[in-house]
Design brief:
The chain has 362 residues and is an alpha+beta fold. Helices cover 29% and strands 23% of the residues. Helix 3 runs parallel beside helix 11, helix 4 crosses helix 5 and helix 7 crosses helix 11. The structure holds adenosine-5'-diphosphate and manganese (II) ion (3 copies). The site of one manganese (II) ion has 3 residues, from loops. Its EC number is 6.3.1.2.
Amino acid sequence: MEYSARLNKSIYHSYMTLEQPEDMIQCMYIWIDGTGEFLRSKTRTLDASPKDPSEIPSWNYDGSSTGQAEGSNSDIYLKPVAIYRDPFRRGKNILALCETFKYDGRLTETNLRHTSKEIMDKVKDDVPWFGMEQEYTLLTQDGHPFGWPKQGYPGPQGPYYCAVGPTNVYGRDVVEAHYRACMYAGVKISGSNAEVMPAQWEFQVGPCEGINMGDQLWIARYILQRIGEDFGVVVTFDPKPMEGDWNGAGCHTNFSTKAMREADGIKAIEDAITKLSKRHSLHIKAYDPKGGMDNRRRLTGAHETAHIDDFTAGIANRGASIRIPRQCAEEGKGYLEDRRPSSNCDPYKVIELLARTVILGE
Ligand code: ADP
Ligand code: MN
Ligand code: MN
Ligand code: MN
Protein backbone atom coordinates (compact mmCIF):
# COMPACT_ATOMS: atom_id res chain seq x y z
CA MET A 1 0.00 0.00 0.00
CA GLU A 2 2.87 2.35 0.73
CA TYR A 3 3.91 1.64 -2.85
CA SER A 4 0.64 2.97 -4.28
CA ALA A 5 0.90 6.05 -2.08
CA ARG A 6 4.30 6.72 -3.67
CA LEU A 7 3.05 6.57 -7.27
CA ASN A 8 3.46 9.87 -9.10
CA LYS A 9 0.33 11.85 -8.30
CA SER A 10 0.80 14.45 -11.04
CA ILE A 11 0.82 11.77 -13.74
CA TYR A 12 -2.30 10.32 -12.12
CA HIS A 13 -3.90 13.76 -12.08
CA SER A 14 -3.35 14.21 -15.83
CA TYR A 15 -5.60 11.18 -16.47
CA MET A 16 -8.14 11.99 -13.83
CA THR A 17 -8.76 15.42 -15.39
CA LEU A 18 -9.60 13.93 -18.80
CA GLU A 19 -13.03 14.87 -20.00
CA GLN A 20 -15.55 12.18 -19.14
CA PRO A 21 -18.36 11.20 -21.55
CA GLU A 22 -21.77 12.49 -20.44
CA ASP A 23 -23.37 9.07 -20.67
CA MET A 24 -20.70 7.18 -18.74
CA ILE A 25 -20.92 7.52 -14.98
CA GLN A 26 -18.73 5.50 -12.67
CA CYS A 27 -20.67 3.95 -9.83
CA MET A 28 -18.68 2.42 -6.96
CA TYR A 29 -20.78 -0.34 -5.39
CA ILE A 30 -19.79 -0.67 -1.71
CA TRP A 31 -20.72 -3.45 0.69
CA ILE A 32 -19.87 -5.02 4.06
CA ASP A 33 -18.00 -8.32 3.73
CA GLY A 34 -18.33 -11.55 5.71
CA THR A 35 -16.42 -10.21 8.71
CA GLY A 36 -19.15 -7.62 9.39
CA GLU A 37 -16.29 -5.24 9.90
CA PHE A 38 -14.58 -4.58 6.58
CA LEU A 39 -15.80 -3.06 3.34
CA ARG A 40 -15.38 -4.12 -0.29
CA SER A 41 -16.16 -2.23 -3.48
CA LYS A 42 -16.14 -2.49 -7.25
CA THR A 43 -17.07 -0.25 -10.14
CA ARG A 44 -19.61 -0.36 -12.92
CA THR A 45 -20.45 2.20 -15.61
CA LEU A 46 -23.98 3.64 -15.63
CA ASP A 47 -25.37 5.49 -18.65
CA ALA A 48 -27.33 8.08 -16.67
CA SER A 49 -27.30 9.70 -13.23
CA PRO A 50 -29.67 7.85 -10.92
CA LYS A 51 -31.97 10.03 -8.85
CA ASP A 52 -32.71 7.25 -6.44
CA PRO A 53 -30.78 4.08 -5.43
CA SER A 54 -33.63 1.98 -6.86
CA GLU A 55 -32.64 3.24 -10.34
CA ILE A 56 -29.19 1.64 -10.01
CA PRO A 57 -29.11 -1.92 -11.33
CA SER A 58 -28.63 -4.76 -8.89
CA TRP A 59 -25.31 -6.51 -9.35
CA ASN A 60 -23.41 -9.44 -7.92
CA TYR A 61 -19.97 -10.56 -6.79
CA ASP A 62 -18.04 -13.65 -5.79
CA GLY A 63 -19.09 -14.26 -2.20
CA SER A 64 -16.58 -17.08 -1.80
CA SER A 65 -13.85 -14.43 -1.85
CA THR A 66 -15.44 -12.27 0.83
CA GLY A 67 -16.33 -14.94 3.38
CA GLN A 68 -19.99 -14.92 2.35
CA ALA A 69 -20.54 -18.04 0.22
CA GLU A 70 -19.28 -21.47 -0.82
CA GLY A 71 -17.25 -21.62 -4.02
CA SER A 72 -19.81 -23.91 -5.68
CA ASN A 73 -22.64 -21.42 -5.29
CA SER A 74 -20.88 -18.17 -4.86
CA ASP A 75 -22.99 -15.35 -6.31
CA ILE A 76 -24.05 -12.73 -3.78
CA TYR A 77 -26.40 -9.99 -4.90
CA LEU A 78 -25.87 -6.29 -4.38
CA LYS A 79 -28.83 -4.00 -3.94
CA PRO A 80 -27.93 -0.29 -3.84
CA VAL A 81 -29.67 1.50 -0.97
CA ALA A 82 -27.95 4.89 -0.64
CA ILE A 83 -26.07 7.22 -3.00
CA TYR A 84 -23.26 9.69 -2.26
CA ARG A 85 -21.10 11.90 -4.48
CA ASP A 86 -17.72 10.32 -5.15
CA PRO A 87 -15.03 12.62 -3.67
CA PHE A 88 -12.25 10.69 -5.42
CA ARG A 89 -13.52 10.61 -9.00
CA ARG A 90 -15.69 13.73 -8.62
CA GLY A 91 -18.02 14.96 -11.36
CA LYS A 92 -21.17 12.90 -11.74
CA ASN A 93 -19.51 9.78 -10.38
CA ILE A 94 -21.09 8.22 -7.32
CA LEU A 95 -20.66 5.87 -4.41
CA ALA A 96 -23.52 3.42 -3.90
CA LEU A 97 -23.84 1.69 -0.55
CA CYS A 98 -25.43 -1.74 -0.97
CA GLU A 99 -27.24 -4.44 0.96
CA THR A 100 -26.18 -8.03 0.24
CA PHE A 101 -28.43 -11.04 -0.48
CA LYS A 102 -27.85 -14.73 -1.14
CA TYR A 103 -28.91 -16.36 -4.43
CA ASP A 104 -32.26 -17.39 -2.93
CA GLY A 105 -33.07 -13.93 -1.60
CA ARG A 106 -32.09 -14.58 2.02
CA LEU A 107 -30.01 -11.94 3.79
CA THR A 108 -26.29 -12.59 4.16
CA GLU A 109 -25.22 -13.00 7.80
CA THR A 110 -23.61 -9.55 7.82
CA ASN A 111 -26.50 -7.71 6.18
CA LEU A 112 -27.69 -6.18 9.43
CA ARG A 113 -29.17 -3.16 7.68
CA HIS A 114 -32.28 -4.92 6.50
CA THR A 115 -33.73 -5.74 9.92
CA SER A 116 -32.48 -2.47 11.34
CA LYS A 117 -34.44 -0.61 8.67
CA GLU A 118 -37.61 -2.56 9.51
CA ILE A 119 -37.25 -1.47 13.13
CA MET A 120 -36.55 2.14 12.12
CA ASP A 121 -39.72 2.14 10.01
CA LYS A 122 -41.66 0.85 13.01
CA VAL A 123 -40.45 3.61 15.34
CA LYS A 124 -40.68 6.40 12.79
CA ASP A 125 -43.22 8.41 14.76
CA ASP A 126 -40.77 8.73 17.66
CA VAL A 127 -38.31 10.38 15.25
CA PRO A 128 -35.12 8.71 16.56
CA TRP A 129 -31.96 10.76 16.08
CA PHE A 130 -28.48 9.31 16.36
CA GLY A 131 -25.02 10.87 16.42
CA MET A 132 -22.00 8.58 16.37
CA GLU A 133 -18.46 9.45 17.46
CA GLN A 134 -16.14 7.30 15.39
CA GLU A 135 -12.73 6.84 16.98
CA TYR A 136 -9.88 5.28 15.01
CA THR A 137 -6.11 4.93 15.03
CA LEU A 138 -3.54 5.63 12.33
CA LEU A 139 -0.77 3.06 11.88
CA THR A 140 2.25 2.65 9.64
CA GLN A 141 2.60 -0.38 7.34
CA ASP A 142 4.13 -2.51 10.09
CA GLY A 143 1.15 -2.03 12.41
CA HIS A 144 2.94 0.46 14.64
CA PRO A 145 1.00 3.63 15.59
CA PHE A 146 1.70 6.42 13.12
CA GLY A 147 4.34 8.88 14.34
CA TRP A 148 5.34 6.83 17.41
CA PRO A 149 9.06 6.24 17.89
CA LYS A 150 10.16 2.93 16.36
CA GLN A 151 11.77 1.95 19.64
CA GLY A 152 9.86 2.64 22.83
CA TYR A 153 6.85 4.87 23.30
CA PRO A 154 5.83 8.50 23.08
CA GLY A 155 5.42 10.37 26.38
CA PRO A 156 2.43 9.33 28.52
CA GLN A 157 -1.10 10.41 27.66
CA GLY A 158 -2.07 13.93 28.66
CA PRO A 159 -0.96 16.43 26.03
CA TYR A 160 -2.50 14.78 22.95
CA TYR A 161 -6.30 15.16 23.26
CA CYS A 162 -7.47 18.05 21.03
CA ALA A 163 -3.82 19.05 20.79
CA VAL A 164 -1.97 21.37 18.44
CA GLY A 165 1.71 21.40 17.59
CA PRO A 166 4.09 19.04 15.85
CA THR A 167 5.17 17.06 18.90
CA ASN A 168 1.61 16.26 20.01
CA VAL A 169 -0.32 15.77 16.77
CA TYR A 170 0.19 12.79 14.49
CA GLY A 171 -1.27 12.67 10.98
CA ARG A 172 -3.68 15.61 10.81
CA ASP A 173 -3.60 15.70 6.97
CA VAL A 174 -5.60 12.47 6.90
CA VAL A 175 -8.23 13.92 9.23
CA GLU A 176 -8.60 17.18 7.31
CA ALA A 177 -8.80 15.43 3.94
CA HIS A 178 -11.44 13.09 5.33
CA TYR A 179 -13.54 15.96 6.70
CA ARG A 180 -13.66 17.71 3.32
CA ALA A 181 -14.27 14.48 1.41
CA CYS A 182 -17.21 13.63 3.69
CA MET A 183 -18.78 17.06 3.23
CA TYR A 184 -18.38 16.78 -0.54
CA ALA A 185 -19.89 13.29 -0.57
CA GLY A 186 -22.97 14.37 1.36
CA VAL A 187 -22.08 12.83 4.72
CA LYS A 188 -23.38 14.83 7.67
CA ILE A 189 -20.01 14.98 9.41
CA SER A 190 -20.41 17.20 12.47
CA GLY A 191 -16.90 17.45 13.89
CA SER A 192 -13.48 15.95 14.49
CA ASN A 193 -10.81 15.96 17.19
CA ALA A 194 -7.48 14.46 18.14
CA GLU A 195 -7.91 11.78 20.80
CA VAL A 196 -6.23 10.94 24.11
CA MET A 197 -3.78 8.42 22.63
CA PRO A 198 -1.38 9.94 20.09
CA ALA A 199 -2.27 8.90 16.50
CA GLN A 200 -5.85 8.31 17.62
CA TRP A 201 -8.58 10.52 16.17
CA GLU A 202 -12.33 10.91 16.16
CA PHE A 203 -14.94 12.22 13.77
CA GLN A 204 -18.62 12.63 14.52
CA VAL A 205 -21.55 12.05 12.18
CA GLY A 206 -25.04 13.27 13.00
CA PRO A 207 -27.56 13.83 14.24
CA CYS A 208 -29.09 11.55 11.61
CA GLU A 209 -32.60 10.17 11.64
CA GLY A 210 -33.14 6.40 11.63
CA ILE A 211 -31.31 4.14 9.20
CA ASN A 212 -29.52 7.08 7.66
CA MET A 213 -27.15 6.97 10.63
CA GLY A 214 -25.83 3.56 9.68
CA ASP A 215 -25.53 4.40 5.98
CA GLN A 216 -23.63 7.59 6.64
CA LEU A 217 -21.20 6.07 9.11
CA TRP A 218 -20.32 3.18 6.82
CA ILE A 219 -19.68 5.55 3.90
CA ALA A 220 -17.57 7.80 6.14
CA ARG A 221 -15.49 4.74 7.09
CA TYR A 222 -15.11 3.80 3.42
CA ILE A 223 -13.92 7.31 2.55
CA LEU A 224 -11.40 7.19 5.40
CA GLN A 225 -9.95 3.90 4.18
CA ARG A 226 -9.57 5.30 0.66
CA ILE A 227 -7.76 8.36 1.98
CA GLY A 228 -5.49 6.02 3.92
CA GLU A 229 -4.54 4.42 0.57
CA ASP A 230 -3.63 7.80 -0.89
CA PHE A 231 -1.40 8.75 2.03
CA GLY A 232 0.01 5.28 2.62
CA VAL A 233 -1.32 5.29 6.19
CA VAL A 234 -3.21 2.37 7.73
CA VAL A 235 -6.52 3.18 9.40
CA THR A 236 -7.61 0.73 12.07
CA PHE A 237 -10.95 0.55 13.89
CA ASP A 238 -9.58 -1.94 16.39
CA PRO A 239 -11.02 -1.00 19.81
CA LYS A 240 -7.74 -1.50 21.67
CA PRO A 241 -4.82 -1.15 19.29
CA MET A 242 -2.21 -0.68 22.04
CA GLU A 243 -2.10 -2.68 25.25
CA GLY A 244 -1.18 -0.89 28.44
CA ASP A 245 -1.82 2.64 29.58
CA TRP A 246 -3.28 3.80 26.28
CA ASN A 247 -6.92 4.64 25.59
CA GLY A 248 -8.96 2.30 23.43
CA ALA A 249 -11.27 3.37 20.60
CA GLY A 250 -15.03 3.45 20.81
CA CYS A 251 -18.02 4.59 18.82
CA HIS A 252 -20.10 6.50 21.38
CA THR A 253 -23.68 6.61 20.18
CA ASN A 254 -25.78 9.62 21.06
CA PHE A 255 -29.47 8.97 20.91
CA SER A 256 -32.72 10.86 21.34
CA THR A 257 -36.38 10.51 20.57
CA LYS A 258 -38.86 13.32 19.96
CA ALA A 259 -40.03 13.03 23.58
CA MET A 260 -36.47 13.38 24.91
CA ARG A 261 -35.91 16.55 22.90
CA GLU A 262 -39.09 18.23 24.09
CA ALA A 263 -39.65 20.09 27.40
CA ASP A 264 -39.13 17.77 30.40
CA GLY A 265 -37.56 15.24 28.06
CA ILE A 266 -35.25 14.27 30.92
CA LYS A 267 -38.03 11.96 32.15
CA ALA A 268 -37.94 10.06 28.88
CA ILE A 269 -34.13 9.95 29.10
CA GLU A 270 -34.27 8.49 32.61
CA ASP A 271 -36.91 6.00 31.54
CA ALA A 272 -34.65 4.96 28.64
CA ILE A 273 -31.74 4.39 31.03
CA THR A 274 -33.90 2.15 33.23
CA LYS A 275 -34.81 0.06 30.18
CA LEU A 276 -31.19 -0.08 29.02
CA SER A 277 -30.04 -1.23 32.47
CA LYS A 278 -32.18 -4.38 32.08
CA ARG A 279 -30.67 -5.42 28.76
CA HIS A 280 -27.00 -4.68 29.32
CA SER A 281 -25.60 -8.04 28.26
CA LEU A 282 -27.73 -8.14 25.12
CA HIS A 283 -26.37 -4.77 24.06
CA ILE A 284 -22.79 -5.74 24.89
CA LYS A 285 -23.11 -8.83 22.66
CA ALA A 286 -24.23 -6.63 19.78
CA TYR A 287 -21.81 -3.74 20.23
CA ASP A 288 -18.81 -5.28 18.49
CA PRO A 289 -18.52 -7.77 15.62
CA LYS A 290 -17.24 -10.55 17.91
CA GLY A 291 -20.09 -10.77 20.37
CA GLY A 292 -18.38 -8.72 23.07
CA MET A 293 -14.89 -10.20 22.77
CA ASP A 294 -13.42 -7.11 21.12
CA ASN A 295 -14.97 -4.76 23.64
CA ARG A 296 -13.64 -6.87 26.52
CA ARG A 297 -10.16 -5.61 25.68
CA ARG A 298 -11.41 -2.02 25.77
CA LEU A 299 -14.12 -1.77 28.46
CA THR A 300 -11.85 -2.43 31.42
CA GLY A 301 -13.17 0.20 33.81
CA ALA A 302 -10.07 2.34 33.16
CA HIS A 303 -9.35 4.88 30.41
CA GLU A 304 -12.75 6.59 30.53
CA THR A 305 -14.75 3.37 30.26
CA ALA A 306 -17.16 1.46 32.48
CA HIS A 307 -16.27 -2.22 33.03
CA ILE A 308 -17.90 -4.42 30.41
CA ASP A 309 -19.84 -6.41 33.04
CA ASP A 310 -21.27 -3.37 34.86
CA PHE A 311 -24.08 -1.09 33.81
CA THR A 312 -23.76 2.45 35.13
CA ALA A 313 -25.21 5.83 34.19
CA GLY A 314 -24.44 9.36 35.24
CA ILE A 315 -24.54 13.03 34.41
CA ALA A 316 -21.30 14.15 32.73
CA ASN A 317 -19.71 10.84 33.82
CA ARG A 318 -17.22 9.56 31.25
CA GLY A 319 -16.60 6.45 33.32
CA ALA A 320 -20.23 5.31 32.96
CA SER A 321 -21.92 3.09 30.36
CA ILE A 322 -24.47 5.82 29.69
CA ARG A 323 -23.73 9.50 30.10
CA ILE A 324 -26.26 12.30 30.23
CA PRO A 325 -24.43 15.34 28.88
CA ARG A 326 -24.29 18.11 31.53
CA GLN A 327 -26.10 20.56 29.27
CA CYS A 328 -29.01 18.14 28.81
CA ALA A 329 -29.32 17.66 32.57
CA GLU A 330 -29.39 21.44 33.01
CA GLU A 331 -31.93 22.05 30.25
CA GLY A 332 -34.03 19.09 31.36
CA LYS A 333 -34.09 17.62 27.85
CA GLY A 334 -31.85 16.47 25.02
CA TYR A 335 -30.21 13.09 24.49
CA LEU A 336 -28.19 10.34 26.10
CA GLU A 337 -24.78 8.98 25.15
CA ASP A 338 -24.23 5.22 25.03
CA ARG A 339 -20.46 4.89 25.54
CA ARG A 340 -20.34 1.12 25.10
CA PRO A 341 -20.24 0.52 21.30
CA SER A 342 -16.82 -0.47 20.02
CA SER A 343 -15.03 1.49 17.30
CA ASN A 344 -15.57 -1.45 14.93
CA CYS A 345 -19.27 -1.88 15.77
CA ASP A 346 -21.89 -2.21 13.08
CA PRO A 347 -23.94 0.99 13.46
CA TYR A 348 -27.01 -0.75 12.00
CA LYS A 349 -27.00 -3.17 14.91
CA VAL A 350 -26.35 -0.51 17.55
CA ILE A 351 -29.20 1.75 16.45
CA GLU A 352 -31.54 -1.21 16.02
CA LEU A 353 -30.98 -2.32 19.60
CA LEU A 354 -31.34 1.19 21.01
CA ALA A 355 -34.67 1.55 19.24
CA ARG A 356 -35.87 -1.91 20.32
CA THR A 357 -34.94 -1.49 23.95
CA VAL A 358 -35.88 2.15 24.45
CA ILE A 359 -38.78 2.76 22.05
CA LEU A 360 -40.36 -0.66 21.56
CA GLY A 361 -39.58 -1.67 25.14
CA GLU A 362 -38.80 -5.27 24.12
P1 ADP B 1 -18.54 14.11 23.37
O1 ADP B 1 -18.71 15.26 24.30
O2 ADP B 1 -19.07 12.84 23.94
O3 ADP B 1 -17.14 13.97 22.84
P2 ADP B 1 -19.22 14.87 20.59
O4 ADP B 1 -19.30 16.33 20.48
O5 ADP B 1 -17.99 14.21 20.11
O6 ADP B 1 -19.52 14.46 22.14
O7 ADP B 1 -20.43 14.19 19.82
C1 ADP B 1 -21.75 14.49 20.10
C2 ADP B 1 -22.65 13.82 19.08
O8 ADP B 1 -23.99 13.92 19.51
C3 ADP B 1 -22.60 14.42 17.69
O9 ADP B 1 -22.46 13.38 16.74
C4 ADP B 1 -23.98 15.05 17.52
O10 ADP B 1 -24.43 14.98 16.19
C5 ADP B 1 -24.83 14.17 18.42
N1 ADP B 1 -26.07 14.80 18.91
C6 ADP B 1 -26.28 16.07 19.27
N2 ADP B 1 -27.56 16.26 19.65
C7 ADP B 1 -28.18 15.07 19.52
C8 ADP B 1 -29.52 14.61 19.74
N3 ADP B 1 -30.49 15.42 20.19
N4 ADP B 1 -29.80 13.32 19.49
C9 ADP B 1 -28.84 12.49 19.05
N5 ADP B 1 -27.57 12.86 18.82
C10 ADP B 1 -27.23 14.13 19.04
MN1 MN C 1 -16.52 13.01 21.10
MN1 MN D 1 -13.72 10.47 21.86
MN1 MN E 1 -18.47 10.83 23.59
